[in-house]
Amino acid sequence: MPVFVDQISISVRAGNGGAGAISFRREKYVPKGGPDGGDGGNGGNVILEASEQRHSLLDLNQNQQYKAQHGHPGQGRKKHGRDGKDLIIQVPCGTMVFDANNSLIIDLKHHHQQATVAIGGKGGKGNARFSSSTNRVPYHAQQGMEGDYIELTLDLRLLAHIGLIGAPNAGKSTLLNTLTNTQAKIGDYPFTTLIPNLGILKFLDMELRVADIPGLIEGASEGIGLGNLFLRHVSRTQLLVYMVTGTCPETVWAAYESLCLELSKSGFNIDSTPRLVVLSKSDLLTQDCIKKVISRFKKDQIDIMHISSESLEGISDLKEKIQQNYIKLASSLLKEDA
Is the pLDDT of residue 248 over 50? Predict the structure, then answer.
């Protein structure tokens, strides 16, 4: 079974600067050459880089201490030591970086976006730098400075345009497969999905990332079940599809209320995210029951669509609705930025 890691703590240390050299020019017929010790090289930096090729923090979890290369020492003939190589650590797009005080350093959202989190120490000066009219034969040089050391927490929050949420066994993974041709694991039992799944919903003029979030149960916001482990990923989505099931209007409405309650208590401000409400597995219900469910939701001025990922009933309408709502959201965000 694939392992998904979305939060880890690591320590990073930049490279130390190389020592300056103590050296004097020695050549034939030049018995008393002046100082010619070169400077040491700078230590390497530690850089975090967002990459679309990374989907989890699992690889970083194997080694939680990272060190950049030290600068090389200076040499005679005023040769400068080589700088230490920077250490570039790749993380998934959507990784938030916090320091030991839980203060946000940077939010790495975009492919190839970089952040230098630890700066290498400067190289020490060689003795050639200390020659003066009063000290023509300096016998000292500087040691390189130490590189930065910092402890970090990396918190991955998936970047998806659309999030599918609902109780376990609500049909989220099946819908993801239907919309995006993803091969997410499905099964007729709760908690089939134990990690978030991502797929691409393609239209003629756009592609939207769709996330299938593991099922939420009552008390999820308090850590019951998979709890807050995956609620953080929902906070990144721009449009949520609430998926509810039931055998009668009352149970469907109860499922919707329970979902809303958990999201409102999550602490991630999810309940304010625009939403579509979908009655899943409608092929298992009679037309009369579906009409009663729609009527029950209309009493609270809520539109609900009904779909079946098995018979494909309502899938085209759902795709169209998702596209229309996303275009409307994107337009409003552009106006706000302007």
Answer: yes
Residue 131 has pLDDT above 50, yes or no: yes
Same fold, 1-156 and 162-337: no
Closest-CA residue to 92 (of 67, 59, 65, 118):
59
Gap between the Cα atoms of 183 and 167, Å rounded: 20
227 has a pLDDT exceeding 70 = no
Burial class (CB in 10 A: 0-12, 13-18, 19+), 115: middle
Which comes out higher in pLDDT, residue 28 or 298?
298
Q: What is the mean pLDDT of residues 130-150?
A: 93
Phi then psi for 243, rounded to 5 degrees? -110, 120
- C-alpha 17/C-alpha 144 separation (Å) is 4
User: Which CATH fold topology does 162-337 show?
Assistant: Rossmann fold (3.40.50)
Going from N- to C-terminal start, the domains of the chain cover: 1-156, 162-337
Sequence-ordered list of residues with C-beta below 8 angstroms from that of 263, at least 6 positions apart, any chain = 165, 216, 221, 231, 234, 270, 271
Q: How far apart are CA 335 and CA 338, in angstroms?
A: 5
- pTM for this model (two decimals): 0.74
Q: Are 212 and 164 in contact (CB under 8 A)?
A: yes
Torsion angles phi and psi, residue 180, rounded to 5: -125, -5
Cα(306)–Cα(321) distance, integer angstroms: 12
Q: Which residue has the higher pLDDT, 327 or 3?
A: 327
CA angle 95, 97, 99 (to 5 degrees): 165
Q: Which CATH class is domain 1-156?
A: mainly beta
